[in-house]
Amino acid sequence: MFRTALRNVLAHKARLLMTVLAVVLGVAFVSGTLVFTDTLSKALSSQSAKGYEGVAVSVTSYGPTRGENGQKEGEAGLSQQTLDKVKALGGVDSVSGRVSGFAGVGDEKGELIGSGWSNKGSNYAPVKDGKDPRYAFTEGTGPVKADQIALDKATAGTGRYKVGDKVRVATNGPVKEYTLSGVFTTEDGAVSAGGSLVLFDTAVAQELYLKPGFYQELSVAAKAGTSPDQLLGEIKPLLDAEHTKAQTGAALAAEQAKDVERGMSNMNQMLLAFAGIALFVGIFLIYNTFTMLVTQRTKELALLRAVGANRGQVMRSVLTEALVVGVFSAVVGLAAGTGLAVAMRSAIEAFGAKLPAGDLVIAPATVVAAVVIGVLVTTLAALLPAWRTGRIAPVAAMGSAHLPATAKSLAVRNVLGSLTSLSGIGLVLLGVNQGGDTGRLILAAGAFFMLVGLIVVLPLLSKPVIGVVRPALQKLFGIPGKLAAQNAVRNPRRTAVTAASLAIGLTLVTTLSVLGITLGQAIDRMSTDKLKADYKVSMAAEGMSLDKSVVDALAKAPGIKAVSPQADGYFKVGESYRSASGVNPAAIGQMLNIETLGGSLDSLAKGEVAVAESTAKKQNLSVGSTLQVQYDDGEKGALKVGAVYKDLEGLLSPYVLDNKILGAHTEDQYIREVYVNTAGGASKAAQQRVVDALGKNPAMKVATQQDVRNEMGGMINTMLNIMYGLLGMALIISVLGVVNTLAMSVFERTREIGMLRAIGLDRGRVKNMIRLEAVVISLFGAVLGVAIGVFLAWAVGTTIAKGIPNYALVLPWERIGIFLLLAGVVGVLAAMWPARSAARLNMLTAIKTE
């Protein structure tokens, strides 16, 4: 029986090729993801370890924290006195104090070098030999004067800077010019991520990022004979345990390696989720393939039963075929996955990101996963067809074909499928009603059961749904159209399994599209319909604060009519701290479309506070109420409520007041953005005036309203394109399923096609019949997928609508139309080979076929 199984695999190479390809694609995605993330994790961990070579102990400051009364406690960082105490210990060889923050370098055109979020500045900290152990200089030396800097080699090369050149560098304030003293190489993660690293003199870096005389980190090297643990024990008593953390360099490197692993696991899980979807869709193709193979070999298998093979042997022969296919697919998939991992790395680097060098890692777990997944998926998908094989009676050898499932055999399936689908829909609606995280979990469970039920009940749906389009097909295409519609529902199970794979893929694509576009438009309305300012100035690095000097520089610039910061601060109301926005009372009404429900924004100029509607209701506040507050510096005060405004989540905090008041009580105030109106309104010339007023600062963005809209839309579209790309594999497998179904359908109907040819159906109309059958099956799955996708998008959107102002479901009819059109194209393309095969059949030979 084993030899028979192998012979059957080799005898049906063409038929099994697409099944193999489906498994290969799924395994390749899984193994490629594992190889890529393992390789990157090891490279990043090795890089992290290199960065701490020679560091026996690392001391990190948490900075000031808030006490029970809300006041800040603790020093700004590690003081010079603490560094000197550590340095005086007997086992210490040297101590380097470190500070770091954002620093952007402009190129020849004044544009920022690097990606913004990974542009970093730090201090050059030479030890007793006059060198900083973290950096190896290829040209020049480290900065030793206030007007000097050093650059990493990649940044210097991109900007075409040489030692002695003037370099424009910006942090969060005015851009400054420095002399390049040297160029270095480093293992710093910012540079590896495609960013830049600027080294300042220590006193300059402290002034920029922390406070004179303070450090964020101390790197301690031990003398020969002193162990890191011994030195750690001596250092800890010298520190403020509540506001600092000390650990060995090895422990820190291990901690960062775990952080890298945790960070990679998120991407790993996302990619594996899409690989799981591809494999799930592949199961339908494998199941369909083995079902059709078993059906076509009914007579052969019955003869085996007749000559003495028992049910178990016949069943095991089919499972052996599946096992051979699975092992072969797993091996090929692992090889393809390794190539995919290399391609993923190249693709990421092509977009400007730099990944640390490292050997390709193919872990034993990856090999095991590839083999297990390939074999398990194939075997499970073939299990039901194999079980049916064992039930073939020897008497079937006298017939020419195995009869399709009867209506009675489908009745149980239809009842179970209907109940499961209705249960799933009920859970989805329950999740919508529940809302929140719990509701979304219930909704996810409901979506799963709904899809499973749909897959089970699809044979029941196929006849009435396809029956609706049969008259149109017959009218438009004549006999080929009528035959195509009849053939599509001749075997409901086969049609259902083929359509199910397309339905699942398009359900996911439609859900993501509707949600993405709806969210994009909601964010667009929130960010631009409420934004009246001509320009919004912010840091190129997301989340960075602008310096207070930016507001002054813009206010003094010619051609600028009004300026208002959007500054964040906190004060204590009752027992908890609340966020507040500091603005320019004279200008904020011109910058944002603020709808007042009571009072006037003019009251801000009188030192009063404006309160958001939702907060006013919770705190029982109204115009004229007095708000007792404790500011960030501990000082207490009373604020009169001068206005109540409609919530502007994402643009304004629940409390708004004059920034002169808020800023006076806030040290190192966070200014997220500055709104600007220019004389004569927005124009290219006006935008250039704002850029000039900022000193052509490469670290700052001057965005128009359209820029803000494009940025938001671009993020959503980028996310959707990534999702489309990942789901593309599932759709490719779906296409293979259609091809496989049609090819085997043509094989089964060889005699029938010969008869049709004999009574006058020419080759062209035979091709049309096969093509139309493919299109009908594809559109059947696509329509169901789109309908379910819209329903699920509505459900998910309803659970998140409360947290997103202006949320309203948007149906992207153009994209939905494109999805349906692509489904039709998929049908036409999938039918090319089977249609050609059918048209080329010799009618006499076909008629004689059993």
TrEMBL record:
Cell compartment(s), UniProt: Cell membrane
GO CC field: plasma membrane
Keyword Transmembrane helix: yes
Membrane-spanning intervals of the chain: 270-290, 322-348, 360-384, 415-435, 441-461, 496-519, 722-747, 774-796, 816-835
Molecular function in Gene Ontology: transmembrane transporter activity
Ranges where the ABC3 transporter permease C-terminal domain occurs: 273-393, 726-842
InterPro entries: ABC3_permease_C, MacB_PCD, Macrolide_Exporter_MacB
Topology relative to the membrane: Multi-pass membrane protein
MacB-like periplasmic core domain segment(s): 17-237, 495-690
Annotated Pfam families: FtsX, MacB_PCD
Keywords for the protein's UniProt record, in alphabetical order: Cell membrane, Membrane, Transmembrane, Transmembrane helix
Family the UniProt entry places it in: Belongs to the ABC-4 integral membrane protein family.
Entry protein name: ABC transporter
Annotated source species: Streptomyces roseus
Taxonomic lineage: Bacteria, Bacillati, Actinomycetota, Actinomycetes, Kitasatosporales
